[in-house]
Amino acid sequence: MYTGILLYHGFSEYELSVLVSVLKQGNKPVVFIGLDHGLVAGEAGMPCYPQFSINQVDSTQLDSLVLPGVDDFEHLVDHHNLKNFLENLKGRELLIGAISSAPYLLSMSGLLDGKRYTTGLTREQRKFLATFDEDYFCEAPLIIDEQVITARGSSYVEFAFQYGESLGLTFDRSWYGR
Predict the structure, then answer these.
(1) Phi, psi (deg, nearest 5) at residue 34
(2) What is the pTM of this model?
(3) Which SS3 state, helix, strand or coil, does residue 133 take?
(4) What is the pLDDT along the chain (178 residues), one digit of tens a residue?
(5) 107 neighbors 131 (Cβ within 8 angstroms)
């Protein structure tokens, strides 16, 4: 079983930096998954080649999934293949982490239904997107509700620690000055 990390154009590299290190320290197998099998550039321009596309990855081997935030997610709004990929994960015992704007991807696919959450998106953005349930929004840097962890982008270190702990990994917080 492994952790899947979704990579899409404009993904926030810094939001994954500590998390990838925590997963490595904890000897957690990781696969990088793209919307297709082409080159993906993060928001700072770092080029990455996902190992699998969402249509190629064996999702039955995932025990966890991470969705980083993205600086401009217009290309992800109602993305049919991504939505189907995420919808197919419903009902599975899977740890899912979404940071910054990525909780939108969970809300558009129904994975956030009935879950408390936080996000870096403003109230106006959430209302415009019309997929979020405001009754479950929490004004907090990080929220855990069952198997779903959401966080604001500025809480990427705490997000990484919580994600690693939720997976039962052993890692050294002092590597990150904590």
Answers:
(1) -105, 170
(2) 0.95
(3) coil
(4) 999 999 999 999 999 999 999 999 999 999 999 998 899 999 999 999 999 999 999 999 999 999 999 988 777 887 889 999 999 999 899 999 999 999 999 999 999 999 999 999 999 999 999 999 999 999 999 999 999 999 999 999 999 999 999 999 999 999 988 7
(5) yes
**How far is Cα 63 from Cα 168, in angstroms, rounded to an integer?**
12
Partners of residue 95 on adjacent β-strands: 64
User: Which tokens go with 108?
Assistant: 């558009």
Q: Which residues of 17-47 are buried (b: 16+ CB within 10 A; e: fewer)?
A: ebbbbbbeebebebebbbbeeeebebbeeee
Q: How does DSSP assign 68-115, residue by residue?
A: --BS--GGGTT-HHHHHHHHTTTTS--EEEEETTTHHHHHHHTTTTT-
Residue whose pair of structure tokens reads 């025990």 in the numeric block:
63
Contact by Cβ (8 Å): 167, 64? yes
Mapping DSSP to helix (H, G, I), strand (E, B) and coil, where does residue 173 land? helix
CA distance 42 to 114: 31
